[in-house]
Amino acid sequence: MVDLSLLLVAGVLGGALNALAGGGSFITLAALVYVGLPPVVANATGTAALLPGYAVSAWRFRRDIAVPRGVSLPLLLSLTLLGGCVGAGILLHSSAQVFAALVPWLVLLATAMFALAPTLLRRRRPAPTAIALLSLFAVCVYGGYFNGGLGIILLAALSLLGQRNLPAMNGLKNAMSALLTAVAVAVYWAGGLIALPQLLVLAGAAVVGGYAGAALSYRIPAAALRGFIVAVGLALALLFFLR
User: Fold this and answer.
1) Which residue has the higher pLDDT, 23 or 155?
2) What's phi and psi for 20, nearest 5 deg?
3) Of 146, 192, 201, 219, which sits with the fewest C-beta atoms within 10 Å of its C-beta?
4) Is residue 100 exposed (0-12), middle (13-18) or buried (19+ Cβ within 10 Å)?
5) Contact 113, 153 (CB under 8 A)
C-alpha cells in the first residue's frame, strides 16, 4: 500500500508538472526506483506513463504547429522518429550499471536546462541549417534515451532554426515530443523494459495530474514554478549520487 500510494502521488505530481512546465519525469523516475525497479526499467516505465499527457498536449496545440523557414515538417518528423529510435535502442542495450551511473548526471543536465531556460530561449541569430538540424537530432536521441527536460531542450534546438514565435514553437515541440516518446516507448515495450502494473498506476494518476496542472497553469508564477522544479531536480540528483 505504501508503494501504491507513492506511485499515485508521483503520477499526479508528474502529470501536473508536465502540464505546467515539464520535469514530471524526475518525480516518476525517483518513485519507480524507490519501489524497487532497476533504473533502466524505471526510466522506460516512467516515460511510457507520461505518454498520454504528451499526446493530449500535441492534440491541444495542433493548430499552433508551424515549421521554421527552410525546413519541412516531414524532415523534422523523420529526424524525430530516427532520433527517438536511436536513443531508445541505446537505452535497450545499456547495462544497468552504466545507466545507474549516468542517471544523476542526466538529472543535473535536465535541471540545468530548466534553470537556464530564459537564457536559452532568448532571441538569438539562427545557426547554419545543417548544424541546427544535427543539434535537433541529438536532442531527439537524448529524448529517446532519457526524456528528462525534453521540452525545454527541444525549444532551444528549434530556436537554432530561427523560429521565434513561441506558440508555433510550443505546438511543434509538443508534436515532436509525442511522436518521439511514442516510438521510444514502442522500442522499450519490444525490449521488455516496461513494468506494466506500475505503468497502469502511474499513467492513470498522470492523467488526473495533467488536468489539475492545466487548471493551475495561469495561477502559478513561472519563476516560482521553475525554481521549484530546479530544487526538485537538484535534490533528486543528490539522492541518486548518494544511492
Assistant:
1) 155
2) -85, -50
3) 219
4) middle
5) yes
The number of residues in the chain equals 243
123, pLDDT greater than 60: no
The mean-pLDDT minimum among 73-77, 80-84, 103-107, 156-160 falls in 156-160
Indicate the burial class of 96 (C-beta count within 10 angstroms; 0-12, 13-18, 19 or more).
exposed
Nearest to 233 by CA among 61, 132, 109: 109
Position 186 confidence tier, pLDDT thresholds 50, 70, 90:
very high
| Whether the Cβ atoms of residue 67 and residue 76 lie closer than 8 Å to each other | yes
Residue with the three cell numbers 515532436: 176
Stated pTM of the model: 0.82
Closest CA to 122 of 155, 154, 149, 151: 155
User: Of the candidates 108, 206, 210, 126, which has an alpha carbon nearest to the alpha carbon of residue 163?
Assistant: 126
Give the pLDDT of residue 129. 80
